[in-house]
Amino acid sequence: MKLNPVSLSFENMPRQKDFGCLSLRFGCIFSALVTILYTILALAQCLASLDKEIPTSIDTNNLDNILLHCFEVAVIVCHIVTLILTTIMLVGVLKEKSYLMKPWLVWTSCLVLGNLFLIVFCTVLMMVFNRLDVEPGLLVSYLVAFLALLFRIYMLTLVGSFYLQLEEEKIERLRTLLNTDTWHSAA
Q1: pTM for the whole thing?
Q2: For residues 47 and 76, is the Cβ–Cβ distance under 8 A?
């Protein structure tokens, strides 16, 4: 089965016209502020967890602990990148510069796909190993992760719609400018 590259294009995503009864711009600002707040809290939690668990010396024979620490460091790096790109996206929304929003769109798309893969992978593992009788706390955290994924998809749709709106306005301004120039040169 060969995928059509146009079908995976960003222009084919569902578009939003507004954020409830507010503008797309406000929705993007709200999304950026929520993401920044979440990322700062997640960074604080990750750093506190890492600080608690880092031993004074690393035992090279215990591969599980080394992999766990590497995973925690990777999560911290992802949160730092998210914080930086969200700040850049917020500046892009406030100044209505679409090129500042694009890195956030690409990064968040990758995060959404990664989170979706992890949720599907964990679901399959629970079914394969017949772990359907999990404890309620794990099930609640699994449900919260799924709801956070849905919220992130909505934020991605909001920012993507505003990005496409800005791009269309830029193209329309260029068309108007070209039409004005040709009108003056023809006279």
Answers
A1: 0.79
A2: yes
3-state secondary structure 13-76: CCCCCCECCECHHHHHHHHHHHHHHHHHHHHHHHHHHHHHHCCCCCCCCCHHHHHHHHHHHHHH
C-alpha 143/C-alpha 151 separation (Å) is 12
Distance CA 149, CA 115 (A): 7
- Burial of residue 59 (CB within 10 Å: 0-12, 13-18, 19+) is exposed
Which residues fall within 8 angstroms of residue 99, CB to CB, at 6 or more apart? 92
Query: What would the two tokens of residue 16 be?
Result: 């939003």
Residue 161 CB: number of other CB atoms within 10 A? 20
**Residue of 110, 106, 109, 88 lying closest to 97 (CA atoms):** 88
| Cβ contacts of 42-48, under 8 Å, gap ≥ 24 | 42/79, 43/76, 43/79, 43/80, 43/83, 46/72, 46/75, 46/76, 46/79, 47/76
Q: What is the pLDDT of residues 124-162, one digit of tens each?
A: 877 777 666 666 667 777 788 889 899 999 899 899 989
Predicted confidence (pLDDT) per residue in 162-186, tens digit: 998 898 889 888 888 887 656 555 5
22, 26, 14: which is closest to 154 by C-alpha?
A: 14
Tokens 């406030």 label which residue?
Answer: 94
